[in-house]
């Protein structure tokens, strides 16, 4: 999927692709500017065969008016425009699904980047990545959030070519209006190894990076990475432990972290030995000066913070990990946490013998959050259910509104009491009596002025790696 080009050919391709981008979008921009543009770097249809990688994605209207939506598909790598899907009149706060596997205009085995635009109301989008759906004991499930706010500096806390059987690939998408020149700088956790990779791509297009190709990263070593670009970019990282012969394939995804000025990172969900899984935190210094991260934890539903953990001082771009399994004496159970002491990008990997899920810590609180895809036993008794972990920053109460996909109707509104600062509560759709089995919901969570953060955990129990997570959305991401 990666192409080697001379400088002259690269410049020529840049001109052609930029013209294609302008032609593909001119008829809409001439009429009206989009309310929101969301970028999806990695979309596939039966990639690797009929039971290969598929990526249904969900778009939620997070405004107060109806939204008209366009979804432009571009071939990965070469960036050729493929098709547009349109949705008219999506009601406020409700969601719609696009399933590439069911789209006859897309070829089997295809990989795409997608640009989603809304007109009339803002949107957010979520992508679920699946493999081996027809073979549940071999399935993998990953999830990432669509990107609407790019950055010229993006952090990837966890990268590896083969450590512990894991391989991370990543996809970089150009969110700007000009051709993007990107530099990726890798640094091993112990600081002894570095490597650099140049990338380039036309507006809206994405580039796939396989660490096994054209790089000198060492086997069995864990790295962090910093991407710098002359155009805003978004990045999605896919981590897989699924080499041929692996008895229990696993995978998780996380979004690259834009460099920000925020000081605290919030983690609504961590576990130690729950369903065989424990969480690992990978903390990267996202600032431009050295800093020392510190962590404080709370048990699920209990406001009291404890076990403040401090790391060694980290140089810019350096990363270290902390494992709730072997590295703590915490009781088994579910936790929330806060990371302070500087500007940090934090990736959370929760893994067990046969499953894995991941997300990135949330920088800052919000009073309104959007959850595009929440389900209750979707696909049968052991099908997809999605517990929500809601972390108070300083909020005392929150309301949870559930909008059914099928008719966009508000079916329930739940009031939740929060335990206190930085602690989380669990909201399980299976325990909400007004909800129906086999049903998908778009959810809106609203709190008082103190603010909240949230994670959605997507689980099924049909075998294999039926676990993935995503961060709740604010209007701007």
Outline the secondary-structure elements:
Elements: H1 7-29, E1 36-45, E2 57-61, E3 67-75, E4 81-90, E5 95-98, E6 110-119, E7 123-131, E8 140-145, E9 151-160, E10 167-174, E11 180-188, E12 194-201, E13 206-210, E14 222-241, E15 250-255, E16 257-258, E17 265-272, E18 278-285, E19 294-299, E20 305-310, E21 319-323, E22 333-340, E23 344-352, E24 355-360, E25 368-376, E26 388-392, E27 397-404, E28 410-417, E29 424-427, E30 439-447, E31 452-459, E32 467-471
Antiparallel strand pairs: 1-6, 2-5, 2-7, 3-4, 3-6, 7-8, 9-14, 9-16, 10-13, 10-14, 11-12, 11-14, 14-15, 17-22, 18-21, 18-23, 19-20, 19-22, 23-24, 25-30, 26-29, 26-31, 27-28, 27-30, 31-32
Describe this structure in words.
The chain is mainly β and 477 residues long. The chain is built from 1 helix and 32 strands. The protein has one helix at 7-29; strands spanning 36-45, 57-61, 67-75, 81-90, 95-98, 110-119, 123-131, 140-145, 151-160, 167-174, 180-188, 194-201, 206-210, 222-241, 250-255, 257-258, 265-272, 278-285, 294-299, 305-310, 319-323, 333-340, 344-352, 355-360, 368-376, 388-392, 397-404, 410-417, 424-427, 439-447, 452-459, 467-471. The strands form 7 sheets. Strands 9, 10, 11, 12, 13, 14, 15 and 16 form an 8-stranded antiparallel β-sheet that branches. The chain has a 4-stranded antiparallel β-sheet with strand order 1-6-3-4, covered by helices on one side. A hairpin with an 8-residue loop joins strand 14 and strand 15 (250-255). The longest helix has 23 residues, at 7-29. The protein starts with 6 loop residues before the first helix and ends in a 6-residue tail after the last strand. The relative contact order is 0.14. The model is unreliable at 1-31 (pLDDT under 50).
């Amino acid at each position: 999927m990666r192409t080697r080009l001379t400088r002259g050919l690269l410049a020529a391709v840049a001109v052609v692709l930029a013209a294609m981008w302008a032609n593909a979008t001119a008829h809409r921009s001439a009429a009206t500017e989009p309310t929101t543009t969301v970028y999806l770097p990695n979309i596939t249809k039966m990639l690797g065969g009929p039971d290969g990688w598929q990526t249904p994605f969900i778009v939620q209207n997070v405004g107060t008016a109806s939204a008209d939506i366009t979804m432009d598909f571009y071939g990965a790598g070469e960036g050729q425009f493929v098709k547009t899907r349109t949705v008219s009149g999506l009601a406020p706060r409700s969601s719609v699904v696009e399933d590439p596997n069911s789209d006859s205009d897309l070829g089997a085995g295809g990989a795409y980047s997608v640009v989603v635009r809304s007109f009339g109301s803002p949107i957010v989008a979520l992508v679920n990545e699946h493999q081996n759906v027809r073979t549940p004991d071999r399935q993998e499930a990953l999830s990432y959030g669509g990107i609407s706010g790019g950055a010229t500096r993006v952090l990837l806390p966890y990268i590896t070519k083969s450590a512990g059987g894991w391989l991370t690939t990543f996809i970089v998408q150009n969110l700007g209006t000009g051709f993007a020149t990107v530099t990726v700088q890798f640094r091993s956790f112990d600081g002894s190894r570095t490597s650099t990779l140049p990338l380039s791509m036309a507006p809206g297009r994405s580039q796939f990076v396989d660490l096994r190709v054209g790089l000198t990263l060492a086997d069995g070593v864990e790295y962090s990475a910093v991407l710098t670009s002359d155009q805003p970019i978004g990045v999605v990282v896919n981590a897989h432990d699924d080499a041929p012969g692996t008895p229990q394939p696993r995978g998780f995804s996380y979004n690259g972290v834009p460099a920000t000025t925020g000081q605290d990172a919030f983690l609504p969900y961590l576990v130690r030995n729950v369903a065989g899984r424990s969480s690992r935190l990978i903390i990267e210094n996202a600032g431009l000066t050295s800093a020392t991260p510190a962590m404080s934890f709370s048990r699920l539903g209990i406001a009291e913070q404890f076990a403040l953990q401090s790391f060694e001082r980290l140089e810019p771009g350096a990363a270290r990990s902390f494992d709730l399994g072997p590295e703590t004496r915490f009781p088994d159970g579910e936790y929330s946490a806060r990371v302070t002491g500087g500007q940090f990008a934090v990736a959370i990997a929760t893994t067990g013998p046969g499953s894995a899920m991941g997300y990135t810590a949330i920088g800052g609180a919000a009073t309104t959050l959007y959850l595009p895809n929440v389900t209750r036993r979707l696909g049968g008794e052991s099908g997809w259910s999605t517990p929500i972990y809601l972390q108070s920053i300083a909020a005392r109460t929150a309301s949870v509104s559930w909008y059914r996909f099928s008719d966009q109707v508000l079916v329930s509104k739940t009031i939740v009491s929060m335990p206190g600062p930085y602690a989380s509560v669990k909201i399980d759709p299976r325990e909400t009596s007004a909800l129906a089995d086999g049903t998908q919901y778009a959810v809106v969570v609203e709190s008082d002025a103190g603010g909240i953060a949230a994670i959605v955990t997507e689980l099924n129990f049909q075998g294999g790696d039926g676990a993935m997570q995503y961060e709740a959305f604010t209007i701007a991401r």
